[in-house]
Amino acid sequence: MDLLSAALLALLVVGYLVLAGADVGLGMLMPHVARGSTQRRRVVAAIAPYFLASEVWLVAALGVLAGLFPVLEHHAVAELWPVLTFLLAGWLVRDAGLWLRARVDGERWRSACDGAIVAGSWTLATSWGLALAGLLTGGLTMNPFTLLCTVTVIGLFALRGSAFGAERLVGPAACGTDRDAECADVAAQSTRLIARATLGAAVLTAVSALLPDGPEVAGLPALALALLLLAVLAATSGLSGPMLSRHTSAVAIAIPGLLVAVAAPLPWAPVPSTTAVFVWATLVPVVPVMFIGQVWLYRMTRRPADERTFFA
Amino acid sequence: MFEDPLLLARLQFALTAATHYMFVALTLGLAPYILTTQLVATVRGDRSRMTAVRFWGGLYLVNYGMGVLSGLVMELQLALNWSGLHEMFGYTFAAPLALETMTAFFVESTFLGLWIFGWDRMGRWAHLACFAVVTATAYVSAWWVLVSNGFLRNPVGFEMVDGVAHLTDPVALMTNPAATMAFGHIVTGSLLVGALVIAATSAYHLVRRDDGHGVFRRGIRYATLVLCVVPIPVAVFGGVQFELFGQAPPTSGLTYTATEIEAIESAAEDGVLLQAANMTGDAVMMTAWTLMFFLGPALLMAWPLGGLDRWRWFLAPLVFTPFLPYLASVGGWVFRETNRQPWTVVHHLTTADAVTPMSPGTAVASFGFFTLAFAALTVITYWLLVRYARRGPDGGPLAEQRTGEPDDPAASDGSQEPAAPVHTF
């Protein structure tokens, strides 16, 4: 039961990183891939159906953390209080931008909301980088590893966003005039560049991990995951265009989550059996509904929305 | 006074919770009405009723957005600022919250996404089913949150193992009277919030004789019925809970002995601010309830005389009535939560012990940012709600697009492809 509960937590965190990585990453890249109000609207229209269904994974992970792993939660809050507050602030600003963008018809209003989306997305990615470094080193310390780890995580989010954008920003000629490049193409071209930069940052992170004062992570699983990350990034930087980057970026961004799950020095307490049975017995009947909703939403919105929706 | 992290954390949580609840109450109050309207519209193929669904649904979404934002902040803030509570009562207090996030919010948000993006992409019955799931999970969500909240008031069903509460009786947790009665109170109270928002919006348009789709004629009749039926159950569910006040919870004595409890409670009996907040909350709630209690019969008497559609002098003041249920809701929560002090978990954990040890600087920074952000977002959301309510069914965020409409925001963006709806009502 303990293992199952831990697996649930890991699944929710990894699910969040893979799914939300796409819309957070695209939010970060908005100034780069979108020129002009039409293209920016298109980017928000690509993000909007997903952020509702992806941030719930993090909310669920936080719930499981509080309800089944209070010792771990206490550790995370004690070590990462400023980072998590920063993350919450970024989350609030980003979501406020997304919810409010289409509510007022004015160029300045939309620019402000786009600014909130971009700033919030960057804040989220940065916070996750700091949180990862903090969890791996067992506390937030200011050293080269923390810095490089943060840069790598930001790169992973950006890579995921550009792969997502290459796929979802494809649209009719309405997107962009002749002078501007099609935003999906810009995103697609970025995948290679971002993958190379992230690969460089990841290598440096791995090297800095060997310095004293680095992470308290050792063992074969951590090494294997680190090598997998480098291999996946290397593969993406060599590919021409987006091609498999949708899958490779998903694998790449899942690795930080898995790394924390298998290798980080985390305090651990067995889940009391009554609580575990109570939570699992209530949860299991709902799992099919959760699954259907997610799959349905992702399938239904595969086609980019051209018509006006609630968000853009 | 504002250098005390405990006071800041408490104030911050009170503000977050009160703001969150104002949006939650309207969500819970509107959802059943929208669902019923969409059901009738789907069964009958009634275009004017679908216009009503799009109109009230637009308000629902604007309101829901701020509900989610404040809910996210509330959940994280609970973890960040109240780690003492989680350390001791994680397995009991936070387990229902864990279930809320997965069985309620996860499903609710996903299916709301399906509903928003599914207007033109799925069959009308599937679309209706999505909103049915949204409505059901909104109530499931309220249920789990109140199981957690009721536990603070009346902690039941656990044993203490090395200073950590271990759940022994999930059934006692779920049937806790402090939770079930509060759920009844919240559900009925939210229906009043929804009804008066509907009544006010309807009255605004009926005064202007602006009701081409019959949306507001039906709205004010629904509100009349709710206002006649619901105030009594609200008072009953609320009144039953007074019996719990001052009663020792069944688990009293597991953490502190009776003498220690008495010492803690007598040491804390000097909070003037707290006393004032408690009494104001109670008075506001009771006054607002009394006014709402008389509103229902007044509306009912005007109905057969045709006053609900015609009497401008009668309808005009109704526009301001939503203040009543909102004041009652916030007053009620202030009353309930201040009544529990000095305890966070009655007879087990004091509020001072529940708070995360924070430096004054970080506490001030966090309090300042989130209070300002919340104030701005709340003002913007209510401004938008009022604006959309006044615009009526043709100007809502979910209103059907008509190409070539001059005030169509998409048109100014240059993307003028007309939507190709699968079903057109």
Question: What's the gist of this structure?
Answer:
The complex is a heterodimer of chains A (312) and B (425). Chain A has 312 residues and is mainly α.
Structure report:
The complex is a heterodimer of chains A (312) and B (425). With 312 residues, chain A is mainly alpha-helical. Chain A has helices spanning 2-33, 36-68, 70-100, 107-137, 144-168, 183-209, 220-238, 245-263, 273-283, 287-300. Chain A is built from ten helices and no strands. In chain A, α3 runs antiparallel to α4. The longest helix of chain A is centred in the first third of the chain and has 33 residues, at 36-68. Chain B is mainly α and 425 residues long. Chain B has helices at residues 5-44, 47-81, 83-117, 124-153, 170-174, 177-207, 215-229, 231-242, 258-267, 272-302, 307-310, 312-315, 323-339, 351-354, 360-391, 409-413, and strands at 158-161, 164-167, 343-345, 349-350. In chain B, the strands form two sheets. Chain B has a two-stranded antiparallel sheet. Chain B has a two-stranded antiparallel ribbon with strand order 3-4. The model of chain B is unreliable at 403-425 (pLDDT under 50). Classes of the chains: A mainly alpha (312), B mainly alpha (425).
Average pLDDT of chain B, rounded to a whole number, is 85
Number of helices in the DSSP assignment of chain A: 10
Query: Which term fits the overall shape of chain A?
Result: globular
Structural class of chain A: mainly alpha
Structural class of chain B: mainly alpha
| Secondary structure: helix percent of chain B | over 70%
What is the arithmetic mean of pLDDT of chain A?
85
- Determine the fraction of residues in helical runs of chain A and give it as a percent range: over 70%
Tell me the quaternary state: heterodimer
Write the layout of secondary structure elements.
The complex is a heterodimer of chains A (312) and B (425).
Chain A: H1 2-33, H2 36-68, H3 70-100, H4 107-137, H5 144-168, H6 183-209, H7 220-238, H8 245-263, H9 273-283, H10 287-300
Chain B: H1 5-44, H2 47-81, H3 83-117, H4 124-153, E1 158-161, E2 164-167, H5 170-174, H6 177-207, H7 215-229, H8 231-242, H9 258-267, H10 272-302, H11 307-310, H12 312-315, H13 323-339, E3 343-345, E4 349-350, H14 351-354, H15 360-391, H16 409-413
Antiparallel strand pairs in B: 1-2, 3-4
Helix pairs in contact in B: 1-2, 1-4, 1-6, 1-13, 1-15, 2-15, 3-4, 4-6, 6-7, 6-8, 6-13, 7-10, 10-13
